[in-house]
Amino acid sequence: MVNGDGAHEHTGEAELKQHGNGEADAEEESNEQEVIVIQDTGFTVKIQAPGTEPFDLQVSPQEMVQEIHQVLMDREDTCHRTCFSLQLDGNVLDNFAELKSIEGLQEGSLLKVVEEPYTVREARIHVRHIRDLLKSLDPSDAYNGVDCNSLSFLSIFTDGDLGDSGKRKKKGNDLEQIDCTPPEHILPGSKERPLVPLQPQNKDWKPMQCLKVLTMSGWNPPPGNRKMHGDLMYLYIVTVEERHVSVTASTRGFYLNQSTTYSFNPKPANPSFLSHSLVELLSQISPAFKKNFTALQKKRVQRHPFERIATPFQVYSWTAPQVDHAMDCVRAEDAYTSRLGYEEHIPGQTRDWNEELQTTRELPRKNLPERLLRERAIFKVHSDFAAAATRGAMAVIDGNVMAINPGEETRMQMFIWNNIFFSLGFDVRDHYRELGGDAAAHAAPTNDLNGVRAYGAVDVEGLYTLGTVVVDYRGYRVTAQSIIPGILEREQEQSVIYGSIDFGKTVVSHSKYLELLEKTSRPLKVQRHNVLNEKNETVELCSSVECKGIIGNDGRHYILDLLRTFPPDLNFLPVDGEELPPESQRQGFPRQHRHRLACLRQELIEAFVEHRYLLFMKMAALQLMQQKANKDSNKTETPAITATSETSTESTSPLEAQAKELAETLVAEDGSDPKSREVVLNACKAVGSISNTSFDIRFNPDIFSPGVRFPDNSVDEVQKQKQLLKDAAAFLVSCQIPSLIKDCLDHSALPMDGATLTEALHQRGINVRYLGTILEFVEKTPAKAQLEHIYRIGVSELITRCAKHIFKTYLQGVELSALSAAVSHFLNCFLSSFPDAVAHLPPDELVSRRKSRKRRNRVPGGGDNTAWASLTPSELWKNIASEAQSYYHYNIQCESVDQVVEKYSFQKTTLLREISIKTGIQILIKEYNFDSRHKPAFTEEDILNIFPVVKHVNPKASDAFHFFQSGQAKVQQGFLKEGCELINEALNLFNNVYGAMHVEICACLRLLARLNYIMGDHPEALSNQQKAALMSERVLGIEHPNTIQEYMHLALYCFANGQLSTALKLLYRARYLMLLVCGEDHPEMALLDSNIGLVLHGVMEYDLSLRFLENALNINTKYHGPRSLKVALSHHLVARVYESKAEFRSALQHEKEGYTIYKNQMGEAHEKTKESSDYLKYLTQQAVALQRTMNEIYKNGSNASIMPLKFTAPSMASVLEQLNIINGIIFIPLSQKDLENLKAEVHRRQQLQELGKSEEPTEESQLQLEDKIPID
């Protein structure tokens, strides 16, 4: 049933293994009961706001009162109120109380909205909220990457909401109205890749001006005597009618006063009008405000909520239009009160991040409601912390934060801002001198973050990690961490009671830490081991020596410096006197790396252990069978296990399957039978298990760490561990890389750009430093032509990463005032064909003659350094080639961008997108002329911004995830209805933890939509898929490969719903985005073009349809091989269009090709072959009839009385049927008998696959549900 998720299945299984399978099942049972409890009762309350009719609101018992506040602040008629309380029978409700805890609150209760007196804080919140309402349709926050706004363009292509309005606009029968012509630049074969259509113009964004100016008045703060009259602050406002007014915000509300710009007169103006809301006041004094504000709010609430809800983490756009910088007081004031260096001087305003992060972890988690509450709290604090850390890191690099050691040189400075500790990624105090200096200091924070992620996921009670965020900004790497209470007052030596502060020269241990870490050692595969300290005493550890244990003043046990949580990668760590297995040596390993901190990924460790477990089972079983066979002789030979078993073991013979069963019973026994004990012992030894009685593989993370010494009695142990590490390194090269290539060949992995390629590598545990090796592997693959897309994306990723490395050091030498000039110069050298890119130095009038030494020392990148201006294109490309050689060990023989483009058939636009996303550059959206030899492509005006690139942990919604997985499993077994219920449940739980916007919710909605569609509920499918597409745009980006997929699914459901023109617009948009992201030559393009071609065929645009379908045929032939069933189907689709055009000869030619493929692949008897043969007969008859008619005409001249031939357009139903087939959807008539058959079929297939016999399966009968959630 499912194709293409081998890789993901492992990750899912691995997660379950952590909990132990038994528990997981038991947990699921109890979960299902609990969910029923949670969901049974939503109820309706009535809400009465001043001056409005009461209205009904649906609420759920777990909501907080605060959530009703939020709803009211968003509703069109109450959005202008911020300072109010909700009262039930005269009692004020506590904002943070859950509704179920409120006495007397039940179905039909009346809640009154009561205006409360303002405070300075409330008045500020009110003004800020009004400003947000005024700006609610303005996209500038999304372009500037603030407040978790991000772009979405879906509504432009769907003409607003697809729901009910879609019905009214249904143009099912009037095909004539549909304009089907695609824009020139997306036609097959077009070479243009324009950038401007990436952000189409949105009519709604034309600002409706409500006010000219709304700003803080210069008369703030109010003098003492006015404070005693209740004045809180003064606002200065200019209305659209050019009326200048001064407004007092008082405890009772807002009113006009008599002040002017030059004279202060706080008395109320005449006539006086006091209003509790600024909106009411402004509507009184400005008719234009009243009219436009109402219109604006109408528009605002008509937008899909997903277009305006904040995302959990900031998404940045790499392109933006030129936006006028409007005066926006609230923004300006915001910048100075809450944003920059003032924040830490306002007492009581900063959050104690460490306390918040740790207390949320301590929340109870015994049952589902508790776990949901805990996970929601963890997620919320975490996304707030990530936002604050990012802001702080930027402030640090921009020089707006005072260092805590201002006397030291800039590289060595450390900072504290907003209770977060910031350090720069340089090797200060030669800490990493042995390990690779600055390169090691740059890699350590990401390794540490991976460690934090791993320990966080194991989630052991009583063991705490620091909140950690790694930010790359303007060429610097900044690590932001929450602060352990008391650590700043103590010297490090006193506080570390476990681990080592000098890479293992001195080591201490602590029983409580050993006990806590022991609990993590099984899921993280860490071995307890002994090392020697400086006095040659044995010290026991359960982590790497760098991992330090510190007890904070709050009494919590913290661990930090987790950079060696996972074992070292010996392929990139040459050690004198150590030999790697032949598989690694054949690929040219070990290779020298920049630093000695290269470690294996957690996904690799898990895949390796899984692989060893299968091996262990097989070995034990084969021995058992031998024992059975040799009952007479007592000698059991242990089958020798050699390194060759490290290569992929995929085919299992029936004999082995039988053996496996034996072994499983053996492992389940308690080992009382001496014979079976011996078998287990032999198998354990052979696979490197650390225990002799059960399978248990763990790694000692200190092996090969310089400076760590092991006691003499553990020599054997250490030797075993070394071998295990070598085997793991060999496993990566000989098993994981080939399996990645195999998945790419059979299209179960379909990366489209650098990010999705990296994700595919990471899922299989392959680090990006293996990119060169992978490319070499592709070059040697016999089917290289079918991997061309992977090769192109791989080389492009390698080149842009090299450019990023160079750009990083390049930017460090640039002072702030020259930033845009330097960035545009770099992009010119990188992408422009202009041979001698000359940098524009800042104009002379700004270069100050007095350069004080002081100023230069303040910012890490200070100094009046203009070395960057001397970079030339040929020098940059030389550097890129040498970086590719030294870092990736890959040879690019190109001296200029044009050679590279020529050699690897790249698109410059794609390279521009990749480098911009990786480095955080934002450029002006316009058409760049890269190929001009007369002027450079970029000027400094084209560089709009530079954003941070942020890495952080993504806390998971574990219960929701389990539901999602069980739902998927049910669907795959053919229980669609149960699957659908589980997935709906997962969706509720995801929403409960993450809020409304999240990548995983997106995957959930996509799968739900697919199930709705299969079960025949088209409108529901449309609504869920629309949400998925919007969400993908907002949380992943408007041109992320996932967004392209969502657009394609949405187009299919639109077509099924009779919205043909919308379906076409969506498909055209998807094609434009795919061209921009990866170009035309990609297997996924064939599917997209088949979709477009079919829809065009349906609306009788035959010539256009053929262009797309023939392109799809070519791509399919290239990537699936000429004998593939996909190609047969492509031939059939082309034949149908030729038939509609009455060109029967061409139709026959294509259908014959298809028939031949079916006959060879499936045999004469298969229904596909029969269908094709019937169609051939039909085409032949039509051709004969046509010929007859033509002959008539020739014979009798044009006045021959012949019946005109009927050429009918294909029926929508037949087009839809073909669309479903190519998109891998089968409809399941849900009778019990059919379901039984289906399950039997699935079971049969699984068995076939286990026997390694499954040929290329029939595509038509596959239900593709390839939506596994990517695991971090």
TrEMBL record:
Domain Clu: 331-573
UniProt cross-references to InterPro entries, sorted A to Z: CLU-central, CLU_dom, CLU_N, CLU_prot, GSKIP_dom_sf, TPR-like_helical_dom_sf
GO cellular component, one term: cytoplasm
Biased composition (Basic and acidic residues): 1-22
Chain segments carrying region Disordered: 1-32, 165-195, 630-654, 1249-1272
Subcellular location, record wording: Cytoplasm; Cytoplasmic granule
Biased composition (Low complexity): 636-654
A Pfam family that the UniProt record links to this protein: CLU_N
GO molecular function: mRNA binding
Family annotation (CDD domains): CLU-central
Keywords noted in UniProt: Cytoplasm, Repeat, RNA-binding, TPR repeat
GO biological process: intracellular distribution of mitochondria; mitochondrion organization
Family: Belongs to the CLU family.
Function: mRNA-binding protein involved in proper cytoplasmic distribution of mitochondria. Specifically binds mRNAs of nuclear-encoded mitochondrial proteins in the cytoplasm and regulates transport or translation of these transcripts close to mitochondria, playing a role in mitochondrial biogenesis.
Protein's recorded name: Clustered mitochondria protein homolog
